[in-house]
Amino acid sequence: MSANYKKSFRLYSAWNYQKETEDLDKASEQGWQLVRGGCFSSEFVKNPDVRYRYQLDYGRIEDMGRYIETFREQGWEYINSTFNGWHYFRKLYDPSLPEEAYEIFTDTQSLLEMNNRWAKLALIVGLIFALSAVIFAIRLITHPTLPLLIQFLTSAIEGIVLLRGCFIMRNPASSRSRRGDSVLLAVFFTVIILGAVVNIVLTEQRPFSQTSQQASSIDHPVVDNRWADFKVTYADNYYLDLKFEADAPFTFAVLNDAGEPVYQVTDTHFEEKNIQLKLPKGHYCYSISCTTGFHVECGLE
Amino acid sequence: MKRSEPMSESYYYILLCLAKGANHGYGIMQMTEKLSGGDVTIGSGTMYGATSNMMKKGWIREIMSDEPGQERRRLYQLTDSGRTALRAEIKRLQRMLENAQGV
Q1: Number of domains in chain B
Q2: Are B25 and A73 a contacting pair at CB < 8 A?
Q3: Are residues A120 and A95 in the same domain?
Q4: What is the pTM of this model?
């Protein structure tokens, strides 16, 4: 990497965009000039001979040519736009100009319009997360499992962070430079990514996928016939769907490593979904016994 | 047009400047500063937002300059409905001033 180029990875929350422009101004003073702004990383080149002031705008621009021209007329050089709708501008710093010369929003109305453009999107996404969190919470009451708990927590955290951001953005007076937000954002993205990864891993490691049903029709008697060995890699609640029919009493059991039943039922006709089994880590199998032929279907989630 | 909402200073000055003839963003900004004795400035973000909104309302339109040396320069021009909106605002401001007489 050249000594005249650097890439900086720093997260800024949308509701704290003024902190980003302040930092860009400071970097410029130290000779590092932003050449490309980004959501996750920014690129700088070293040039100690100039000093710029930076501004950010947000929104979908209908007429990019007119937009850039409107800024250029007042000395703003368009740098770039990010994929999610932020636009970076810089203006050569002239100490003889008053501070207002470096403002791009000179009335409350236009500043609020800009802030609301972002807040509207954050509100919709935040509400979707909050709604998912409620749905997960309801399912969690009847179906407590670890993957579901993780889904609930990630949605709840993401929802809260976005709705809070939406609130701050709509009340710009409260948004002057929040220092702790980089940490919060790092946590936010870590939660999203880690939550998704952990969830995929945990779901993958569950003994049977949600759709896999095992079915068997046997026309002769069996005694303690063991089948479908499965492994539980982490202790959690698992849910058994079970259905069987037989002419004589039929016994269905889930046996652990030691051959002890952790669940057992004897009947001629049986159908139940979502039987909650609290299974510690270990190896298990199904065991069936019947004095006549029978038909059995079962699935574990 | 029904009772008009009070306009923001930026909208008002943009329309006022354009009432004197088509102009580009920078010209509007300079004229606004001069008219208001430096009190009102219109930054680029405010200018783009205000002109976009007023074009949507049909108060102003975009034209290309045909003056020599200024060809293909973007200009804004007041429309009839823009002029009506400006007159309504001036009337509102005059009434407010008259109401304040003797205070």
Answers
A1: 1
A2: yes
A3: no
A4: 0.82
